[in-house]
Amino acid sequence: MAIVTFWSQCKKEVGQTSAAIAVATQMAMEHNYKILLISTYNNSELKEAFWQEQKQRKGLAGLFDANKKVNVDSGIQGLAKAVNSNKITPQIITNYTRIVFKNRLEILDGYDSKEMEYEDIYKVYPTIILNASMYYDMVIVDLNRSIDNEINNKILEISNVIMYGITQKNSSLNNYIESKTDGFLKDKKNVLTYLGRYDRFSKYNTKNISRYLKSRKDIDYMSYNTLFNEACDEGTVADLFLKLKPIKTEDKNVDFLNEVRKLSESIIYKIQELKLKI
Question: Within 13 Å, how many C-alpha atoms sit on residue 232's CB side?
């Protein structure tokens, strides 16, 4: 019953959507959670990471249910209409989602329609997210930094954990320090910081960054991975994670999966830690 929001104040790409997709997929595979992954962007990036619309894919039929029947007004557009008609309940949200792993991972992809204005869509996200948190064990939100500040802040306020993305750029690190000193991150206890699109060959490695940020432990990260990014483009993310999971040998792709696993474990630990402080 937790809300985990991926968000960043960086103007540059931090791999936020990729990180949300990877963490949601890994958690669904290895933990006993029922997860909803939500995009607040006006695109279909989440959907495209798991399905190829133009090709009927076969195999793994027991695990996938991409042909799940949904309401005529499916996805976020349908849910927005339900909210505006005061017909939203936690239980009906699943009727508007797509299934990746049955009883484990569902997707509510972003706005991708001309039927409704995006401004009318993003206003209902806080209501949808709160209702979803009453039905799913974990709601993972890919939060669009550029949407209305009031809505943005509402989503951040209701989040149990905020995954704050930064990059290996000097400007990003300095902006993070400023935010910790006298900005959004000041006095925030529910924020986990991670490095997106991590390059291990940069002089801004985790040890140097942790030292620069005066952090007691190395910062979590998710490297840029070619296979994963291709899978996000080809609709085969779930297939890739299933193929990588049993591999035990040293391999850069297995290392990538372990990075995602560590991010997931940090989130779970943070949620448990915050519960103990209540």
Answer: 18
Cα dihedral 40, 44, 46, 51 in deg (nearest 10): 160
Reply yes or no on whether the pLDDT at 74 is more than 90. Answer: no
pTM tops 0.85, yes or no: yes
In contact, 8 and 18? CB cutoff 8 Å: no
Measure the CA angle with vertex 34, ends 8 and 61; round to 5°: 110
**What's the pLDDT at 98?**
94
Measured CA to CA, the distance from residue 272 to residue 274 in angstroms comes to 6
Q: Which CATH number fits domain 2-277: 3.40.50.300, 3.20.20.70, 3.50.50.60, 3.30.470.20?
A: 3.40.50.300
Give yes or no for a contact between 103 and 64, defined as CB atoms under 8 angstroms apart.
no
pLDDT tens digits, residue range 140-159? Answer: 999 998 888 899 999 999 99
Q: How large is the average pLDDT for residues 62-80?
A: 61
Return the half-sphere exposure (C-beta side, CA atoms, 13 A cut-off) of residue 80.
22
